[in-house]
Amino acid sequence: MTSLPDGGGRVNAVPLTKSKGRGCLGRRGSPPSSLHRRHTRQGLAFILPCFVLLGLVLGFPMVVAFVNSFTPLWSRGLSGFTIDYYRRLLQDPIFLNSLVRTVYFVGATVALHLVLGLGMALVLNSAIRARRLFRIVALLPWTVPDVVAGLVWGWMYDPLSGILNDALLRLGVIASPIEWLATPSLVMPSVILADVWRGYPFVMLVLLAGLQAIPKEEYEAAKVDGANAFQEFFHVTLPHLGRMIAIATILDVIWQARRFGLIWVMTEGGPARSTEILSVLAYRQYFKFFNFEYASAMAVVLALILVVVGLPYVRAVARRA
């Protein structure tokens, strides 16, 4: 609505109409999104090489492994499909032992990652001096490659020159050196300890981000209500961290089930298959014994398990998108 004077000096209200595709003053709106379509095509062209590379590096081996688990692809081609390799898995005590070892390893490492990561996140989120420096130091283990971490921890566990036995002997805790990586009852806890040091910073980082997103007003309101530190943790901190804890746990389970380098460098799955998780067993069957089809079946089973574990994370991300 606008006001225009008439010839007699009076002011008349004249309504303004808005036509399709025009502004209130009759100007045409933005032109058809040809520029947007051009930018979209350019963006797709830029990311196309990345998708092609992922298809070659990840997609092609996945398809080959899946097909190879049903038929000797390299010798028979796409003929003679069978599920005998999967039947063999269910009857193989070595595979079943490896499955149990995988559950043990993943369950222990993920639980310890979560406990240590949450504790460190709470400490690094508090008002301590040199907080930035401590955050950098706490993240350093995550930057160490698996192979390097395995070598370092292997040297520390060495029965003759390792720092762990030397420290325990000096303190009088043990009377003689311990074969940490050669004793079946001790080797898995030893590997788990090394992996916890290597992997906890990821969980710590995720939970630290969640802690920083909690409104400070809720802690202030809890203090006004007379809540102590434990009540604040259970009634304010944990409810807000529930989603981040679930995401960190799911991703950590996936990565721990795929762990290979650290275990292979430290023990190669031994002694007596005490640390032979599924990733190590599949590697051994494929590259040591050349049982390509059987190893492919193991890899497919592991992949299916991880897909089931990762579905809640994918659904959560899809809902947010």
What can you see in these coordinates?
Helix content is 70%, strand content 2%. By secondary structure, it is an all-alpha fold. It has one domain: MetI-like (MetI-like fold, Orthogonal Bundle). A hairpin with a 5-residue loop joins strand 1 (2-5) and strand 2. The two termini are 41 Å apart. The relative contact order is 0.11. Mean pLDDT is 87; it is low at 14-29.
List keywords for this structure.
single chain; two-stranded antiparallel ribbon; 13 helices; 321 residues; mainly alpha; MetI-like fold; globular
CATH class: Mainly Alpha
CATH topology, by name, is MetI-like fold
The biggest sheet amounts to: 2 strands, antiparallel
Q: Into how many domains do the coordinates divide? A: 1
Following the backbone from N to C, one meets helices and strands in this order, namely EEHHHHHHHHHHHHH
Number of beta-strand segments: 2
Helix/strand structural class? mainly alpha
The radius of gyration is 30 Å
Distance between the termini: 41 Å
**CATH superfamily, called what?**
MetI-like
| Approximate shape | globular
Strand content: under 5%
Identify low-pLDDT runs. Answer: 14-29
Strand order of the largest sheet: 1-2
Number of helices: 13
